[in-house]
């Protein structure tokens, strides 16, 4: 993307514009899952170290968002959902966004290494690279599998949090990774079903654009089914327990039911009710992820009282 493409400065950037550049809604999910990775790890951690680790993981996630917005400004201006972002809205120059993202990336990785360990910092650096380069610059505009492979970037935070505390990777951190990784495609494909015109106009090869909505509906059901073993299976590890299992079974039953309803619908039905079911499943998928990680946290909180875990 060139610095002049899709950009005309209309107003001076405010502090809020730079915050928006960090994708705060996405960052909230990153912060929460990274925090869970830190707090459910099987070693004691000083509160200051925990807060420091979470802060720099969040900063790295924000840096990824800024770099993504810099690269995608030319298509963001086309899409209704993203046209109000700081660069296409003419509030921040692309060069400023690039410099901001690179500076934050360096700060986040170096400070996480100093505060915790090299493994956690290395995972954070790889996550930033994967989201900004592998996903944004390559996968997003070249393959309908963009969100499948690219979903790894959003799945790393709990693993980074776990590594920051333990200095390693374990079955538990891999399962937290897989929970987010397998959840990402049906979550975004549900969105793509009712936002398809945006992706089509911008030339982004989402599955709905390249293979049609019927194929996308099939994929949502298949990936939701494939998600269940990872989500429920985590309940039988050291970070799970009876409470988590109960929550997970209920949430997965609900997600499967929603995916089944999406699979059964045709476009005439969906357009007639303005994609109500798809929108409901998309919103439920957000609740699904937050409640799973909330249940991990609840199990960890109950363990000192002999109530959580196995």
TrEMBL record:
Keywords assigned by UniProt, alphabetized: Cell membrane, Heme biosynthesis, Membrane, Plasmid, Transferase, Transmembrane, Transmembrane helix
UniProt key word Transferase: yes
Cellular compartments annotated: Cell membrane
Protein topology in the membrane: Multi-pass membrane protein
One GO cellular component term noted in the UniProt record for this chain: plasma membrane
Pathway entry: Porphyrin-containing compound metabolism; heme O biosynthesis; heme O from protoheme: step 1/1
Domain of life: Bacteria
Residue ranges that the Swiss-Prot or TrEMBL entry lists as coiled coil: none
Protein task: Converts heme B (protoheme IX) to heme O by substitution of the vinyl group on carbon 2 of heme B porphyrin ring with a hydroxyethyl farnesyl side group.
UniProt miscellaneous comment: Carbon 2 of the heme B porphyrin ring is defined according to the Fischer nomenclature.
Name of the protein this chain belongs to: Protoheme IX farnesyltransferase
Organism the protein comes from: Pseudorhodobacter turbinis
Upper classification of the organism: Bacteria, Pseudomonadati, Pseudomonadota, Alphaproteobacteria, Rhodobacterales
Primary gene name: ctaB
């Amino acid at each position: 993307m060139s610095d002049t493409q899709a950009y005309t400065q209309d107003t001076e950037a405010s502090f809020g514009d730079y915050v928006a550049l960090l994708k705060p809604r996405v960052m909230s999910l990153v912060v929460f899952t990274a925090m869970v990775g830190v707090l459910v790890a099987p070693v004691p951690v000083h509160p200051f170290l925990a807060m420091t680790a979470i802060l720099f993981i969040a900063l790295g996630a924000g840096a990824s968002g800024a770099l993504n917005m810099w690269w995608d400004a030319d298509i963001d201006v086309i899409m209704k959902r993203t046209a109000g972002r700081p660069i296409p809205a003419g509030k921040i120059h692309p060069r400023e966004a690039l410099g901001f993202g690179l500076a934050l990336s360096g700060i986040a990785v170096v400070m996480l290494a100093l505060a915790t360990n090299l493994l956690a910092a290395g995972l954070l650096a790889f996550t930033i690279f994967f989201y900004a380069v592998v996903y944004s610059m390559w996968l997003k505009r070249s393959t309908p599998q963009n969100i499948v492979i690219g979903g790894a970037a959003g799945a790393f935070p709990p693993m980074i949090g776990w590594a920051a505390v333990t200095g390693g990777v374990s079955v538990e951190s891999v399962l937290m990774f897989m929970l987010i990784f397998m959840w990402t495609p049906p979550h975004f494909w549900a969105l793509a079903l009712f936002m398809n015109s945006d992706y089509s106009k911008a030339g982004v090869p989402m599955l709905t654009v390249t293979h049609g909505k019927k194929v996308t509906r099939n994929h949502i059901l298949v990936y939701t089914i494939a998600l269940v073993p990872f989500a429920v299976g985590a309940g039988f590890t050291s970070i799970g327990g009876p409470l988590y299992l109960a929550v997970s079974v209920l949430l997965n039953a609900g997600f499967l039911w929603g995916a089944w309803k999406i699979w059964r619908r045709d476009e005439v039905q969906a357009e007639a009710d303005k994609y109500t079911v798809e929108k409901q499943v998309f919103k439920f998928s957000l609740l699904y992820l937050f409640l799973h990680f909330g249940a991990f946290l609840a199990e960890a909180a109950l363990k000192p009282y002999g109530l959580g875990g196995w």
